[in-house]
Design brief:
11 helices; single chain; mainly alpha; 265 residues; 2 domains
Length: 265
Amino acid sequence: MSDNVHHLSRPAAELPAAPPPIGTELSAAWERVVTRIGRGGSDFRAADIPAFLVTEAREKAPLYQAALTPAARTHLWAWLERLRALRACQTWPESAGELQASVDGLWTAVGDLPAGCWTQDSLKAWIRQSIHWPLPATLRKHADTIASQLRSGSRVCETIVRASEATPVRVDPGPMPDPARAAHAAAAVQRFTSTRIPQIPYQQAQTGTPRPTPRRGAVVSDEALLATMERDRSLGVRGLDLRITMLRAKLGKGGTPSEDDVPGD
């Protein structure tokens, strides 16, 4: 073994430390927080996050931040030196000059990636998946996957920490209707339901069977029905918006009615 080869088998720099992986419980907590905040945060409380998960996130957050700091050329050099020393590839640089040329070429492809891409764990992952000395494209793909995992882990930890420190989000449901208005709204729903004209079943429409005649008092004009539904909606009845929009379009009124269009008490 030449002096150069012997020198290359002794890495001169330490590899960055890999942060611990994000556990399933921490990931699940992150998903719950993101889902609730995405819905407006109406049902999110900081106390919903278990204390042990907050502690775990606080401990891991700075480790992921450190792993996401920009890499130095020495990180890649040390990583390749260890790969060379392990003799895990079919071919490898035979001299210091060849190793330097390899570092220069690979650094052009991966120099913008974080330091956490060049850890002992990422080296083991490369050995498990390839028996070849890295090429710029293949090493970039390998390191991109690790960088994505680091960014994801950092995002999980930071979100949990920030959420645990947040003031609970509450949504004011608005004033509750008084009993009289609630009773009137319930009666309006019942009245509207009872005055609906029966629909023609598909089989009757196909065979030409005469349409059933509505019961006496059930037929109302579109104008009267629209006025009734708009009044009911103003009193708190829900689920009428689509019917009102369709009736207004049918009557050529269009748009969303203003407060002046809705009949008063």
